[in-house]
């Protein structure tokens, strides 16, 4: 059974840092591109970042570029999102998701999400 | 970035109704269009990929169509478990972008 489990969400002050791990099981992490998507309270889904299968290529939304870093440890079956210089507007549930690429590209499995609250 | 615009933003329907949600891309995305739905407090769930392909395990009352810039999601007969928020998403390029969502509520 495919599973993605995020953790690390917390209440943090503006300017603080947080690292979110996403532990995966039931599939070979090294075969897939992985993404982070976030959802502010009561709002829609917003793409945050993606990393290719071996970690050699990453991409970020303009709103987090230079502050967030996506990485992966395929041997540990874990995806990460390092979040620095956090802002109030980064408050959201953060989801990790697997992108399947065969006929098209789509997010076929999602974690349950972890809540990050940035507030003083 | 490719902008995705859904309509309507919300709708009220009854069980058994046919529901149609539309999604428009700001440029052509071929058929790189996916649909998800999300219930409160839960993660999104994939319904349709590549504009018209039904994800495994998803009921056949869900269907998708379109290509280029204009797409539709149709629920042929709305069921109680279908009341949720629906999102389209393009995978033509990065950044992947979502529509703003369509909330389907009970009339």
Write the layout of secondary structure elements.
The complex is a heterodimer of chains A (120) and B (107).
Chain A: E1 3-6, E2 11-12, E3 18-25, E4 33-39, E5 45-51, E6 58-60, E7 68-73, E8 78-83, E9 92-102, E10 104-110, E11 114-118
Parallel strand pairs in A: 2-11
Antiparallel strand pairs in A: 1-3, 3-8, 4-5, 4-9, 5-6, 7-8, 9-10, 9-11
Chain B: E1 4-7, E2 10-13, E3 19-25, E4 33-38, E5 45-49, E6 53-54, E7 62-67, E8 70-75, E9 85-90, E10 97-98, E11 102-106
Parallel strand pairs in B: 2-11
Antiparallel strand pairs in B: 1-3, 3-8, 4-5, 4-9, 5-6, 7-8, 9-10, 9-11
Architecture overview:
Chain A has strands at residues 3-6, 11-12, 18-25, 33-39, 45-51, 58-60, 68-73, 78-83, 92-102, 104-110, 114-118. With 120 residues, chain A is mostly beta strands. In chain A, strands 2, 4, 5, 6, 9, 10 and 11 form a 7-stranded mixed beta sheet that branches. The mean pLDDT of chain A is 97. In chain B, 0% of the residues lie in helices and 50% in strands. Chain B is globular, with a radius of gyration of 13 Å. The model of chain B has no long low-confidence stretch (mean pLDDT 97). The chains are: A mainly beta (120), B mainly beta (107). Chain A binds chain B through residues 35, 44-47, 50, 59, 61, 95, 99, 103-108, 110-113, and chain B through 31-32, 34, 36, 38, 42-46, 49-51, 53, 55, 85, 87, 89, 91, 94-101.
